[in-house]
Amino acid sequence: MREKKLFGLNKNITVAGLVSFFMDVSSEMIYPLVPLFLANILGVNKSVIGLIEGIAESTASLLKVFSGWYSDRIGSRKWLMVAGYGISALSRPIVALAAVWQQVLAFRFVDRLGKGIRTAPRDAIIAESADTSSLGKAFGFHRSMDTMGAVVGPALAFGLLAWFANDYRLVFWLSLIPAAIAVLLIIFFITETARRKPSSAARPKLTLKHFDWRFKFFVAITTLFAIGNSSDVFLILRAENVGVPPAMIPLLYLVFTLVYSLSAMPAGIAADRFGRKRLILLGFVLFAAVYFGFAALASSVSVWFLFGFYGLFMGMTEGVQKAFLATIIPEEFKATAFGIYNMCIGLALLPASFIAGVLWDKISPSAPFFFGGCTALASAVLFLLFSTTVQKQRTGV
């Protein structure tokens, strides 16, 4: 039996959106400040910053596939979400007390560890709570709420930094409050979707044999793209590099997240109506244009527009890719599939961020963005080939 709908959306989808809103308020109070904290307070170079981001994202991403598989195996989503969001909340004191970069690495790792545990079960519960015809809308709403939290977070950080004379550590401590609210929302308001626990013989095994070539090819394309899509800290560092004052960085990041938030749900609805593959392809091309723009950046004025277009890219693709993925995976392996997808993208962040750091230090601040633009164009070509092949198979050509 379907859950009661609120504002045209299933209750689980609505609450999952609110959970992500509050957790992102917490995360984005911290995230835009971390590279500045590392570079300006702890004196860390760009290669180490890239290494920190790569290790944190990639190592924790290994858990995404195991969490998804385990969720399918036990037939449950909710309490893995509680564990994942709870672990991320508990990571905040680590960065608030950090005196050396290794402690910041520990914070990023624990925070991403929580994300690795919660992501696949959360995506699966959204997919299971939505009608097939409105998957884009459901994931678009989630991304919109998630990113609206990323609008509020930097705004709070900006206000707190201005009021408390750039006290980074106080901002890190206060980020605990919205994180705790997110965990409480899951405990009291998420309802486990009715699913029969698999018998011992029917429990899914962790293998790719459950998935056809479409899933494997799509994951390969998005992984290639992710190798050029280094951590957003490099966008922040590039902005500072061309003259944006550190105190304005949270507002610059707010522009990105505001555009992202406002475009995510309309993009999901458009994808449901006009085709998810079209939106994904257009997103790859837009990303390439934005990254080439960051490579050629010469003034602090242009960076505001580029951050806005980067937000549009995220709104067009993040939720839409997951909505498309939900249509090419077996019903009984949804969390496993989302886990594999998220793991591959997360693992690609280790080489992506490390390569970006090395290119920045050894060649120029423009080099990481030329590299990312080229991998995006390659991904667009491969995705066009993928879409054409799928269409031919459907029409029997």
Question: Keywords, please?
Answer:
single chain; 397 residues; mainly alpha; Growth Hormone, Chain: A; two-stranded antiparallel sheet; 77% helix; globular
Rg calc? 20 Å
Estimate the strand proportion.
under 5%
CATH class label = Mainly Alpha
CATH topology heading: Growth Hormone, Chain: A
Looking at CATH, the homologous superfamily is MFS general substrate transporter like domains
End-to-end gap: 40 Å
Per DSSP E runs of 2 or more residues, the count of β-strands stands at 2
N-to-C SSE string, H for helix and E for strand: EEHHHHHHHHHHHHHHHH
Main-sheet strand order equals 1-2
Mean pLDDT: 83
Notes on the structure:
This protein is mostly helical and 397 residues long. The protein has a single domain (10-196, 208-395), classed as MFS general substrate transporter like domains (Growth Hormone, Chain: A). 77% of the residues lie in helices and 1% in strands. The radius of gyration is 20 Å and the shape is globular.
Layout of helices and strands:
Layout: E1 5-6, E2 9-10, H1 11-30, H2 34-41, H3 46-74, H4 78-90, H5 92-96, H6 101-128, H7 135-163, H8 168-174, H9 176-189, H10 213-228, H11 233-241, H12 249-274, H13 276-295, H14 302-326, H15 334-362, H16 367-395
Antiparallel strand pairs: 1-2
Helix pairs in contact: 1-7, 1-9, 3-6, 3-15, 4-6, 4-9, 6-15, 7-12, 7-14, 10-15, 10-16, 12-13, 12-14, 13-14, 13-16, 15-16
